[in-house]
Amino acid sequence: MRLFSQAFMKTRIGLLTIAVVALAFMTPAALAEGFSVGASIGSSKITVDDSSSGIDFDGSDVGWKVFGKYMFNDNWGVEVGYVDLGNPDDSILGVDIDVEADGIDAFLIGSFPASESFDLFGKVGYLAWDAEISAPGIPPESDDGSDLALGIGGAFHTSDTFSILGEWEWFDIEDSDSVWMLSIGIEVGFN
Q1: Which CATH number does the domain housing residue 9 bear?
Q2: Nearest to 153 by CA among 79, 73, 60, 103
Q3: pTM, to two decimals
Q4: 110-143 b/e (C-beta count within 10 Å ≥ 16 → b)
Q5: 98-129, pLDDT tens digit by residue?
Q6: Which domain holds residue 166?
Q7: Beta strand 76-84 with 95-113: parallel, antiparallel or unpaired?
Q8: Rounded distance, CA 73 to CA 21, Å?
Q9: Residue 7, phi then psi, degrees to nearest 5
């Protein structure tokens, strides 16, 4: 398990290093024109349905995320962030099970300006995740990995520098049937 934790930390550090190096080579004017930061909060859900073992986990909780985004133009950009899916819990065969999951994600964003003040967007990327499963009287079990992440949403621009976001993100976390988060948030640009 220690080997998995070390690999996960290296993946997180690698993603952050790539983002910092990419930003370091951009001029301040270029950064100001397309760079933004944001935060969102919403509902996260994790489901696992394994009929062979009788496990049917269906838990939800409050999730949140913070992110940095750089748009190359009105249609294409990249996003790097941290997502915390909260602590979904459920009862399996009378035992209370808690799952904690979080990770670092990186996305390529495709945006379609539907009007002057509203954009639709889709994103495809990668999530380096870490999860811990716990139950009363049983030592916690940890796992980690890196998997596909997808998202769709909309952004309402209240000004040149401030937007309200609504989005749905899906994460292909290993050994789960469905992991997603529906959130609302804000984004502040540096134009």
Answers
A1: 2.40.160.20
A2: 79
A3: 0.80
A4: ebeeeeeeebebebebbbbbbbebbeeeeeeeeb
A5: 989 999 999 999 999 999 999 999 999 999 99
A6: 2-189
A7: antiparallel
A8: 20
A9: -65, -40
